[in-house]
Amino acid sequence: MVKCKGLNVMEQKGQALEQSLKLFIVLSRAYRAVSDQVNKSIHSFGVNPTEFAVLELLYHKGDQPLQQIGEKILLASGSITYVVDKLENKGLIVRRACERDRRVTYASITEEGRRFIERVFPEHAETIHDTVSALTAEEKEQAIALLKKLGYGAKHALTDRG
Known about the structure:
Keywords: DNA-binding, Transcription, Transcription regulation. The protein has six helices and three strands, in the order ααβααββαα. It has helices at 5-43, 49-61, 66-73, 77-89, 111-131, 137-161; strands at residues 64-65, 93-97, 105-109. Helix 2 (49-61) packs across helix 5 and helix 3 crosses helix 4 (77-89). It is globular, with a radius of gyration of 22 Å. It starts with a helix and ends with a helix.
C-alpha cells in the first residue's frame, strides 16, 4: 500500500508536535525537581528563594537600582518592594537614594548580609552541584549549550509572532 505524500507530511508534523510537547513536559519536570531541591535548601537558611536571589545579586554584582532588580532575578516589579522590605527588616540590605537622580533608589547589601551570603553560599553551590550530579561534566556542557539554544530560539519565536 502506497502512502500519499501529503499524509506522510501530516504524520511527520504530528510526530514533531508530539515530540515538542514531550520535551516541554520533561523539561518542566526536570526544572521542578531541581528547583524543589534547591529551594528546600534555601529555606533552611531562613530566607525564601526570592530573598536569596536578591542577596546573591547584590553580593555578586554590587548595589542595584530597585527598578532593575526584578528584571535581573525574574521577579515582577511590584514584588520587589515587599522583598526589599523583608530583607531590610532582617538587617541584610539597606536602601539608599542615588546622589545624581533622586528618583532612583539603590539596594545595598549590609555587612550582616555579606556575612550571611558568605556563610551559606558554599552550601548552596554544593546543593546545586549534588542536585545536577546525575549528569557528567560533558553532559552538563551539552545541556548548557542546548538549553541556551532553546532559550534564544523561544525568545525569537515570541518576537517573530508578536
